[in-house]
Amino acid sequence: MGIAEQPQRVTMTRAARRVLEAAERLFYERGIHAVGVDLIAAEAGVTKKTLYDRFGSKERIVVEYLAGRDERWRAFLAQYLDDHLDAARATPRARVLAVFDASRAWSASFGAKGCSMVNAHAEISDPSHPAFPVIAGQKEWMLALFTGLARDIAPDGAERLGRTLMLLHEGALVAHGLNVFPDPAAHARDEAAALLDTVTAKA
């Protein structure tokens, strides 16, 4: 989870899996605060007792929901890069832009309402909430990813470049969720490409 502490995960039984699948869909579609345990239990076809036996609290379900989304995004990104880049020949510029391409593909398939972490942070801003480290951890991981990629392009300005690339990436996710204008991920990719070309030309 970046530099944030890994949350302790719940062991999944069949009933727990049904609860989590229902919660994931409801939380993402309607928001975390708007969804109660009664609705989750009903949608999962389990009793509230079973829900609490498996998770203990709604907060723990939220942790599992966000941690699961984070794991799937990281796995998706890794697989996308493997499938679309020749690791031995890919330039640093191509690796950066591939992250934007992967995010665009993810958003098209799994992110109609935008980034689940950004959406969750709008409802969970208290650092003491058990889900907060998951939210912050994913963004810390993304910043570290972009900074590491930037280091291969501009070693002396890697932190600044990494932050700028992350801002383009995160802004595109928000614009996508709000449906502000068509294909913000492609626009962010184009801006990132122009930025990288400028940085490279100055090197």
Give an account of the 3D structure.
- Helix 1 (14-30) packs across helix 4, helix 4 crosses helix 5 (92-110) and helix 6 (116-123) packs across helix 7 (132-151).
- The chain contains nine helices and no strands.
- The chain has helices spanning 14-30, 37-44, 48-55, 58-84, 92-110, 116-123, 132-151, 158-178, 184-202.
- By secondary structure, it is mainly α.
- The radius of gyration is 19 Å and the shape is elongated.
Strand content: under 5%
Work out the number of β strands. 0
Question: What gross morphology would you assign?
Answer: elongated
The chain-level structural class is: mainly alpha
Largest sheet: none
Low-confidence stretches: none
Provide a concise account of the structure shown.
72% of the residues lie in helices and 0% in strands. It is mainly alpha-helical and 203 residues long.
Output the keywords.
mainly alpha, elongated, 0% strand, 9 helices
Task: Give the helix/strand layout.
Blueprint: H1 14-30, H2 37-44, H3 48-55, H4 58-84, H5 92-110, H6 116-123, H7 132-151, H8 158-178, H9 184-202
